[in-house]
Design goal:
This protein is mostly helical. The chain has eleven helices and no strands.
Amino acid sequence: MNQLQRHELFSRLRALNPKPTTELKYSSPFELLIAVILSAQATDKSVNLATRQLFPAANTPAKIYDLGIAGLSKYIQTIGLYNTKAKNIIATCKLLLEQHAGKVPRTREALEALPGVGRKTANVILNTAFGEPTIAVDTHIFRVSNRTGLAPGKNVLQVEQKLLKHVPAEYAVDAHHWLILHGRYVCKARNPNCVHCVLIDLCEYKHKISTKTEDVSLFPPNTHTKKSNSQTLKAKKKRS
């Protein structure tokens, strides 16, 4: 994929969703940090269900630290690996209070020094909380980048480095969210929805299902399936 095609790819994703953001619910950088730590090997939906109960009770480093591991675990026990996550979150809150005056740091080094925070989590915080043009390569972004030819790589770091190099500057801040949402709702792992993909003609995936340009839905990922089903029902009525 060349640079003109990359520009066109992001232009189309922006047209579908001009202001993309995370599906995790949060109201502060600290709440986002906790939600992202909890989201490892868990769905955003399950995290939101847990934080809906947790954050009204405790949404600062001091308040969550006061809960202790056992107290925090009660709020997050529906999430996978909750015991390990509770230990990391309590330890992170302790460091935030001792070293950062209770604030979420804005540097990668300081973020990655927090328990339970790796490169991907740090990238999410830098991008979503602080507006930095970073890209956290998760399974969705890794898949989309390789399938489409946008930024192919053998591992997440290679893909991240290529994306940082090749994503046009005007799309850099929002690229992370566009690619995640596209991978989550359209370019899915087992059954990619090629017939409703606005990137079909740009995509280099050799197993893609070809379709005519006029058949490609221009609706956002969360609505195009409903539209397609509606059109199918109308077509059936006409035939009958």
